[in-house]
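Reviewers asked in the last cycle whether our approach scales beyond single polypeptides. To address this, we selected a multi-component target totalling 689 residues and predicted its structure end to end. The input consisted of the following lines:
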Amino acid sequence: MEHFFGALTFVVLYGGTYGVVLFVLSIGLVMTMGLMRVPNIAHGAFAAIGGYMAVTMMVKWGINYFAAIVLATLCVSILGAIAERTIYVRLYRLPELDQILVTLGLCFIVIGSLALAFGPNVVSIPLPSSLTEQIGLFSRSFPLYRLFILAVGIVIIASFWLVFDRTSFGAQLRASVDNRSMAQATGIPVNRVVMLAFAIGTGLAALGGGIGATLFPLEPLYPLKYLPLIFIIMALTGFGNIKSSIAVAILVGITDTAGRYFLPELGGFVIYVLVIIVVALRPAGIFASRRGA
Amino acid sequence: MYTLPKILRPLLQLTLALSLISPAMAQDPIKVGVISHDTGPFAQSGKSFRQGIAAYVALHGKQAGGRDIEFVFRDVGGPAPAVAKRLGEELLVREKVDMLAGFTLTSDALAVSSLLEKTKTPGILFAATSPLVPKSSKYFLKSSQHIAQSASAAAKFGRMHNKEKAYILVSDYAPGHDAQKAFAKTFQAEGGNIIGEARIPLNTVDFAAIVERVAQAQPDIINIFVPPGAPAIGLMRSLTERGLMKNTMVIGMGEAEDYLLPEYDDSVLGFYQSLYYAEALDNAENQAFTAKLKELYGPNAVPDFASASAFDGAHLIYQMVASQEGKDWDGPAAIEAVKGTSWNGVRGPMKIDPNTRELIQNIYLRRVEKVDGQLKNVIVDKLEAVLAPTDEWMEN
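The resulting structure, written as structure tokens, was:
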């Protein structure tokens, strides 16, 4: 019994933390996809820039881990806002293929620049000693780092809920996602909402790149390497169902971890089975509402 | 649409015209085409090949057997066997190379093997370790290893450390399968038990789940084979988080060479590797090689198995050219001439087995330790003159 609880705790905690990182990495794309209908292939690039920035601040300037991650998140969200105003704003009226070409090109530029600046190999993020300790749960130990990720995830999810449901920005965002032209007609400054949402999304991606750097090691190919995972979350969530992406990401994290734990050799494919089933049965998204579909 | 500025056109035409005029040579040099990767996910190998060759040339000159030797490099740029084949054709037909070398991936070598057969051109394998490659053409020679040499040696080292229960974790791709088989077979033959084996998909990001499974099987030795970079770092961290690095013997092959160690945190401390080369070897050849690398590429340059293979491979190429001194270049004759030859490489004594064309060489056991505050691979043991297994052994 104790063994069973150990395994269960393991799957929930590890799968949950994996899911939280996936959520933080992909939420920006879910938002911008819903708002602007731009498949932003360069989304992972912002996460990579955030991670590399955090590492540089820590290693070169000796800034504390937590401060470095916060700073990197802020810097990248400003970068995101600038990119939205200068590059992405030109894409909205273009056909999808052009949008994909431009964002993929951006992605390649970032990959090349990262390789030039940091070399082709993995760059490790040094964790503070407070996070490398172990903590006992159900007669076995878990690293504190996992709990830290879980805590960050809970804070982000809670603040998301608050912003989304309780602020006028949240209301404007929901309106713009659901029906852009109607929102514009009622006087919502959609362009500003889009820019802010883009900045928040890229900032969160950078946060994911920073806190997730021990799970998703930083390397120049990072922006493309983890894109399939981000796209899986987006496909399962559907267009703009921002809130449900939390549940989707955690479901993906737990399914993946459980699959790999119980069926080590086939476990890597469990997640794709989930994708096939969901896309076949609920193409609008796993928790999408039926209305207006 | 943009058009080429007017001034660029004549310039381009001139460059093109100049490139078509080949300079006349008093005596044709021997040209060696090196097929490797300078860009893409395997770019490290290209860098290492260039460094190994450059160090050899700097130490031993540009000539062997009275002829100049010239290296021509080509970049495959990713896992693309078709590109490797096209580059091989281009090197043979247009550059008229006398030998090919390099070959980062087994698939690169296999793609070029039919060209070697058709043109009777020798190919020197600096990295591809699969037993399939030498079988695909009789014109292949190796300066790397047979993958089972290191994998079987890992099993022997484990038994020498009195380990009884092994768990094998390999990445789910051909080299992983070869390594898994060789380790399992040797470990059992030496009296140990395999209590679990798993092939991990190459796309694995979070290794915690599989490591949890391994921990519950309670092995006392864990053999791993995963590509260096993100997968190796992730696996190492998970093994340490679960306390396995401390309580069991974790042994791999080339996952944490010295140049990779800065990528790791202290979770890699205590990790064992079994391989045909070790940076810390103190033989004269390796000392000279390491010193030359630092002279050419700065104080932080360190060798790795790929640059060591390129260095020893360059030696083999020089030997082959020297064997044809005073004659017209004859590739097959040069291969015959070096079969059975032995010399001291940077890895220690090495010999080309005349029957299999594989190398007979030492396998070293290294352990990651902290030396003066820095992570370093320290040599703890070695097996001398390890033979490559026969095809029958690998197949059964």
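The CA atoms of residues 169 and 224 of chain B lie 5 Å apart. We regard this as preliminary and will revisit it once experimental data from Aim 1 are available.
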